[in-house]
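Input record (Table S2, row 911):
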Amino acid sequence: METAILFTLFIVLFLINVPIAISLALAAIIVLGIDGQFTMYMVAQRMFASLLSNTLMAIPAFVFAGVLMSYGGISKYLIAALKAWFGHLPGGLAVVTIMACAIFAAISGSSPATAAAIGSIMMPTLIEGGYDKKYAMGLIAAAGTLGILIPPSVPMVVFGVTAEESIGKLFMAGLLPGLFLTLILIVTSVVYAKAKGFGRSERASWNTRWRTTIKALPGAFLPVFILGTIYLGVVTPTEAATLSVFYTLIVSTLIYKEFKLKDVRTVFRESINISSMIFLIIAAAQVFALFLTANQVPNQISMWIADHHLSKYAFFFATNLMFFVMGTFLEAVSIILITLPLLLPIIHALHIDLIHFAVVMTVNMELAMITPPVGLNLFVVSAMAKERVESVVKGVAPFLVIMILGLITFIFWPGISLYIPRVLMQ
Amino acid sequence: MIKRLGRSYKAFEDYFCGGLVFIGLSLIMLNVILRYFFNQSRSILDEFSTYFMIWGTLAGTAVALRDDHHIKVDMLFIRLPIKLQRWVSVIAHIIGIFFGLFYTFYGSQLVGRYYTSGQVSTDSSFPLWIVYLIMPVSGLMFIFRILTKLYLLFKNGGADWHRANSGEV
Amino acid sequence: GSSTNTSGTDNKPIIIKFSHVVAESTPKHQAALKFKELLEKNSNGKFQVQVFPSSQLYGDKEEMEALQANNVQFIAPLSNKVVSFSKSFQISDLPFLFQDEKSAYSFYIGENGQKLLKSLEPKGILGVAWWLNAQKVFTNSKRPITKPEDFKGLKFRTQSGGLLDDQFKALGAGSQTIAWGDTYQALQNGTVDGQENTLNNIDTAKLDEVQKYLTISNHGRNDYVVLTNSKFWNSLSPEDQKLINDAMKQATDYEIKLAGELDRKSLENLQNRGKIKINTLSDSQKEEFKKVLQPVYDKYVDLIGKEYIEAAKNSK
Ligand code: NA
Ligand code: NA
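Output record (sodium ion complex):
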């Protein structure tokens, strides 16, 4: 009963345009308050304590590094180099967009940040190249979602903290599926661009190719550096994120000389906007989750599942359907924090590999970024292209289908998620 | 005069929150350097880097509110007539104020409890009431920002708000 | 419902929430279940105990506050976590203080151990029992440790800073706090050379795959303290308090038995796997360590309390 009130309140609040974080917190606060036995200052305590984790600090750090990259010229030079090599091929600009997103994703932990950083440069380039605007918008929104599958990844940090699973392992697990999805996107976009006769850019001279590549190297080295340090275990994910902040700072001020003192405030503001938005959702979702656990909702669900002898694949089907529906109107962090504590006991009981499940869930969260009404990548691209969200949705629809096929592949092929963690961890 | 104060406060918000996070990042960096080049590290740096970053991001919830960065669901909202949108927005902001008040009130109560119990952090024995002081502080910053947004909804009978919100996107 | 009815009238059971942060397979959880079973049975259902394992309800950093707020009625943290309320609880971390497990047990059930449990009363917290877990040992990947000099230049993972940092500093080693989940990898890749832990943690996390030497030092202890809050406690009739105390007493014996078995079983597992070289510090070797670690004692004697330290030293 109280649980029903909780969810009803939450839905009513977000429907009247109260921010999702505040809807989560207030719904829980009201239900805990009605109960009368709960000491309310513990809500404040829970909000603070839910952030009190060294691991979670990877989130603001990766966000900070990502914002710095957009201002410091790293993404600009990266795209210039990719364009020199692949821009003249059929569908070449689409390939450049996808590859740039994949490389940026290996530095940034966020999908909207990836879409914004690459899209702001590639959107005009694609349109100049004769690409249909709707297609360009869909491409950027979809390729941007790689941001959370290719490590590092904010949702994976949240997943790891919630499930007490090694962040390094989760990151490694996302790598192959991320590259696989990149490849599928590249293949389909080339086929599509060829069929539609979309244009290409001039073939660059070898001289230009090498020049732009050398210019891009300091930035392109960053993914190797981040993944390398995490995989080697020399530093924690949070420290790797911090190192990348200072590395980016040095490259963009000393080598590229693109980052000026006047940009400090903008970088501060943009990183704070993203980090604080995520952190408020985390804090609020933990209050929400507190109510659910205190009322033993996870146990009840587990018992129900046990009584009904759910199979592994029925579980995958049910959860993926649930993630998809929730993903239409919620963003990744809140979905993970609301559902994962409820699902963990079942995952355990059904002997599903947690790492495999994490990858599947992350791909689901990618879909959440591009499904309306609430899809962060849709918003970013719509604002960037000055087009209605609806037309971005139309552009992204074919990519959505491709990504769902990718999701199905990852569900039935655990090996692709588990191969690297197994090889590197044992 | 008021406009200038507003601009300065806005700058203060940006530098204060971003600065705290940056200090936190610098402490993590310092710890890595200490570990690799001097074979020592300080758990106190781990602890305080986390504090600084939480301080910055919690205070930053007001910045994200100011810049409209908190994610909202507007599938129902945008289908309403613009006049109704304004009133729904007013209600949503008042609800936000309730949240701010709750957060600030119980945050202060928490600070008070930590102060009287004299509880300290596990690693560095730092008084926890100082650590939690950010809750009432960020709560007040948050409430201030909602109030300014609410004011905009009513200013000139809502004319300014209508102008800002009638265009698509 | 989540209501915590403390009056227990009208046939509505009194709900006790027992929250802890470790897995269901551990002696701690098993003992909490034993407590639940006994109390529910002996009270004819007047009490209903809900046990929340694995930080499901409250994590390490908030369970103490949740207890004070009476949002939970029992928690069982590692005793050194209580240090944020009282420095004296660091006593189990003080290196080479207790002679062996038996002396730790005698200290806990003795006058000073019980006094320590009661010392939290001004903060609204009551210590109910000590649940022994296990001794701590050292592992590392560089060399067998027999004397203090062997620590020179090594880097160790610790679970928290403060006293443990000082312990390694006095031994000439570096230390770093690393989350337990990241420890295997940190050891594998040489971020740190060694760590200190219970045999069971070393066994279950398979740290012998990434460490070469294990030194049974028994230099400190990881024990739990079961806490309740005075608001809840004082709301109970003396008869109910007695029911709880009786159930807790049996649960405590059960826990100590399980923990002891687990410690021995894990040592056996490590020996059988044969991947790690094991040595045990002799009493005379321990004396060498005590000398080098004197600065730690000097620094913490007033913080922890001289009487407690003396009592622990002389505990047999
Ligand atoms: Na990424
Ligand atoms: Na969505």
